[in-house]
Amino acid sequence: MPDPVPLYYERELRRLVNGVLDGGPSAADFVSFVLEKLCEFNAGNGSWQRGPQVGAEWGRRTATGEVVKPRQLWRGAYGALLPVFWDPETRLGIGRGRKAASQTVQWLRAGSERLALLTNGRQWRLVFAGLDFDAWCEWDVELWFEEGALSPQIQALRTLLSPRLWTPSVPGLTAPLLQAILDSRKGQAELSAMLGERVREAVELLVQAHGEVLRERCADVDPAETYRAAVRVVMRMVVVLFAESRELLPRDNALYHGAYGLSGLLEELEKVASRGGNRLARSWNAWPRVQALFSLVHQGSHHPALPVPAYGGELFAPGDPTAKDGLSRALALFETAAFDRELLPDRDVHRLLERLTRTKVRVRQGRASTWMPAPVDFSDLSSEYIGILYEGLLDFELKTAPPGDPVVFLAVGNQPALPLSRLEAMDDAAMASLLEKMKDAGQGEAEAGEGDEAEPVNEEETGEEEVEEEGATDETEAEGAEEAEAEVADERHTARTRAEKWARRAVEVGKLARKPKGPATPEKRLAHEEAIGRKARQLVTRVLLPGEWYLVRWGGTRKGSGTFYTRPGLAVPTVHRTLRPLAYTPPSGADGPAALDAPPAAWTPKTPEEILALKVCDPGGGSGTFPVA
Fold first, then answer.
1. Burial class (CB in 10 A: 0-12, 13-18, 19+), 262
2. Considering its fold, how many domains does the chain have in total?
3. Same domain, yes or no, for 546 and 590?
4. Which domain holds residue 620?
5. Which of 110, 193, 548, 619 has the highest Cβ tally under 10 A?
6. pTM: predicted TM-score of the whole model, two decimal places
7. Which residues pair with 372 in a beta bridge?
């Protein structure tokens, strides 16, 4: 935290603020005073270049051909840099003030810098510009003094605009403030990956809850259509949660919150669940409320107590049980089957909402790491993540376990789903080959898709974490088994026992448990047997009874690389590299030919007619990542 503002500086700041608010000519002096005296960007830690002192090398060409450079430039140790841009307009980013805001972002993207300050004296905007997004935070001098005293805005300004946060600790490193921003973006990407898995689990829960009625009423419907219908229902919930977090739906309206909203519904379900007694399993009020919410979003409301526009759209359009289209029939079943029989109790709706609003984050604890539950703040996720979630679901297909043969998910590689009879029929050579192939596949996916994630944990730590996570799933399955008929519980137990028996053999054949060194003593043999049993339980992730629904990727595995979606961090550079030679003219090199490797700021835009004549096609389509980039 910065030190308190000296009394002399506080009095001077008050005088200058009054001058700026009164429209006085001291705005430039005011900016210099704030940056040098309050924020301490001074001769003790760097040097300032102002006006003509800022060299032409800092000029960068925008998309309109204008050359833009900062009005002031502070340069510190180890390459530290604070560019300051000035806008004479009265409001930043509004009306004519949008030009300076856009030029600041373009200037940052044309170089290697990512942070800059934009101000008109009254407003102070800290701007971050990445390849695929930009963000900013702002302070208004009208709020710097509250009730005659310095407001928290000053403390926040001095905290973020501090030379310590803008200066790398050693040459070659990123400044602390920029690193914190990049880490937060990385955390958002990791959150989206985890949330994608949770959304898939929600779709699977919805289908499994309607398993019996699906077999009765939609036996002739293609499983792919049933899956698309379930995805549509869950994506409705995702969109509503996103809209509520952005206040696009009136979550502050008491009627909406108490009778329609998903956030309010989750709060109510959690209160009931906290009382114990398994009350949620004996009530069926939540799912009809969710369907009423979908109708509200689609049809709107003109009532003065709850004004909501009719958004319409295909996503929220209701299904038709009489339609020839299998998708519409399956969608109608998910919407109305709960009204006909005791399907989808409040307990299952609670689990659905938990999958969508709760996630797990990896937390380091000393030398180990563990998974901790954490809420999902949809307001922190940009709209592109809805596309990420949806396209991740496109990689899956809906299947049912074959009659008379349980299906086992293995915690090896990408988690293959295989019939238990096939596993039991394998000889030692086939079993060893299977484990080795799956292990190699998992390592390949990790190298391709997870190279930019947080520091890895060792194999033993990963195993412990998987045991902890699957333990939570086992507890949930155990609750359901207690409520099911005794014969179903016995069948599930028998299938699990068979699977773990096979897994013990696989652990021994694949040498997944280390043998003790030295002479074999009873204690060592017992410890080795316990290690084999522990590895066997870890190897069997899940067992499905015949006829149960489940989701797997098109390759028959639970996990994969998610190749349907190209993240903006890759899409944006690809688009720039492809389209720049078509929309811009490169500068001439020293020896005559065009310098195609020149920095972006050195390229000159072609004429508007040439640019408008370009035709760009994205054959893959998807969620439009490349056209948006």
1. buried
2. 4
3. no
4. 568-628
5. 110
6. 0.66
7. 361
